[in-house]
Write a structure and sequence with these properties.
By secondary structure, the protein is α+β, with helices and mostly antiparallel strands. The chain has helices spanning about 5-15, 45, 70-80, 90-100, 110-125, 125-145, 155-170, 170-185, 190-200, 200-210, 230-250, 250-275, 280-295, 300-315, 315-330, 340-360, 365-380, 385-390, 395-415, 435-460, and strands spanning about 20-25, 30-35, 55-60, 60-65, 215, 220, 335, 415-420. The strands form three sheets. Strands 1-2-4-3 form a four-stranded antiparallel β-sheet. Strands 5-6 form a two-stranded antiparallel sheet. A hairpin with a 2-residue loop joins strand 3 (about 55-60) and strand 4 (about 60-65).
């Protein structure tokens, strides 16, 4: 990883040196540079600098997105350019300045980029949290009763590490909501508050009990939102639109109290009844169709569902698809056809992480990718790969789908079945035992194919030349 002084030096050189820099400040994540000639810096060259996450132009500022280490980079930049350090820009002021940024023309491509940028901005700051939590799960998987048996599942150490894993993943809606609000220029705590609403135990209890619940008389589909991110992203986006509209018309003397209150009052029926459960609502509508498709189209159906699986996971639709599958498993003790598709999608995801670790040149990103692979293969956790790699490099979604499709096709052709519910890590291979020896061998081969194809496809096609320019 480039140190802060190197990052500052490369940025200063790319923007034309100290002679082109009138002044500079920073907010929580961005260097905000005032240039004499803003035609000098080439955005793609700046983005290629190790440690730089993006570039934004607007008004009189040239903004370089760094992340949480921006104060240290700013300090080094001031030393190199012989500038007097300014106080950090407050969040509210930064949001107001960012709102004034000239927006590019909205084309379908730009809309897609904006959506992916928003989602990546919500999740990228969480990568250290997800990796740390995932590694605690890895330790339990290796040292706990599943493998080495160094301590039992009832031990305080096992329970502690499980707590630490849950703290990182279970409460993702709260953490992602905070980041989403920051992305949209509203008070981050309000985004976290919406995440808390989705996670509050009394509300989640309705999902467990199946009891009906209404919001102002409107029927509400209650879902367990633990470990989900798309519901909170949609919810905070809608809330931000309402919040900004109310803030425009609210008198300043009343806005502190009544703008958040009224925004929440108006937004909450849409959030709880439509936006947050959207994945479940849509998933319930299509689950029967997907299940039928998977069982009537032979190996092709298994392959297609495997290719789509991680997209279903991101939206929460996989839960609706899994319910009839699990019911069938509890009746027969066997998972076959589309019921095993998720396994090959998981192994393809492991392959994406390994392919990225082998291909990326930036030391920090290479390290993150390798940690994501470790979290996956040992802990069975794919979120670091999905949110840390695929959201940032969207081609990797395609390479993951390719690996899953090929592995799923092989499994469908050889009629691979699973006979147990196991962890999602490498121990998942044991789920194919219990039937014939050929079934075990073919199950392992299918997983290996998904992994290898994921690695190869990601290595050769997962990144553009610009992505690989970061060193």
């Amino acid at each position: 990883m480039a140190n802060n002084k190197e990052i500052a030096h490369q940025i200063l050189t790319a923007v034309g040196g100290a002679s082109n820099l009138k002044d500079a400040t920073h907010c929580m994540t961005r260097l905000r540079l005032y240039l004499k000639d803003d035609s000098i810096p080439k955005d793609e060259e700046v983005k290629a600098i190790g440690g730089v996450l993006g570039v934004v132009r607007g008004g009189q500022q040239y903004q370089v997105i760094i992340g949480t280490n921006v104060p240290k980079v700013y300090e080094e930049l001031c030393k190199l350019a012989n500038l007097t350090a300014n106080a950090p820009v407050e969040d509210a002021k930064a949001a107001a300045e960012d709102a004034a940024v000239a927006k590019p023309k909205l084309t379908p491509k730009q809309v897609g980029k904006n959506i992916m940028g928003y989602m990546a901005g919500c999740m990228t700051p969480l990568i250290p949290v997800l990796l740390a939590g995932a590694l605690f799960r890895c330790i339990n998987s290796l040292c706990g009763p599943e493998l080495l048996g160094l301590y039992p599942a009832e031990s305080d150490l096992y329970i502690l590490f499980d707590f630490l894993y849950d703290a990182a993943f279970y409460f993702m809606p709260i953490l992602a909501g905070f980041n989403a609000a920051k992305q949209l220029g509203i008070t981050p705590m309000l985004g976290g508050f919406i995440g808390c609403i989705l996670m509050v135990p009394d509300f989640a209890a309705y999902a467990t009990s199946g009891e009906p619940f209404t919001v102002f008389g409107i029927p509400c589909t209650v879902t367990n939102y633990a470990q989900t991110v798309l519901p909170i992203m949609l919810s905070v986006f809608f809330f931000s639109v309402v919040y900004k509209l109310i803030k425009k018309i609210m008198p300043d003397v009343l806005t502190t109290v009544f703008t958040p209150f009224l925004s929440m009052l108006i937004s909450i029926p849409f959030i709880l009844c439509l936006l947050a459960p959207l994945g479940t609502i849509v998933g319930n509508a299509i689950s029967n169709g997907l299940a039928w498709f998977g069982t009537t189209t032979g190996f092709f159906g298994v392959a297609v569902i495997a290719a789509l699986w991680e997209f279903l996971v991101l939206s929460g639709m996989h839960l609706a698809l899994m319910m009839p599958m699990m019911a069938s498993f509890f009746e027969t003790g066997i998972q076959s056809g589309p019921m095993v598709s998720g396994s090959f999608a998981t192994w393809a995801c492991f392959g994406v992480a390994l392919g990225a670790a082998l291909r990326l040149r930036n030391k920090e990103e290479k390290s993150t990718a390798f940690a994501s692979f470790t979290a996956g293969i040992l802990g069975g956790i794919t979120e670091p790969t999905l949110y840390g790699i695929c959201f940032r490099y969207s081609r990797c979604f395609i390479t993951s789908a390719i690996g899953a499709f090929v592995g799923g096709a092989y499994a469908g052709i050889t009629n691979v079945c699973a006979y147990a519910i196991t962890s999602s890590n490498f121990l998942a291979l044991l789920s194919f035992s219990g039937g014939t020896t050929a079934n075990l061998i073919n199950g392992i081969i299918a997983c290996a194919i998904s992994l290898v194809v994921g690695v190869v496809a990601t290595y050769f096609f997962g990144f553009s030349k610009k992505d690989l320019e970061k060193v």
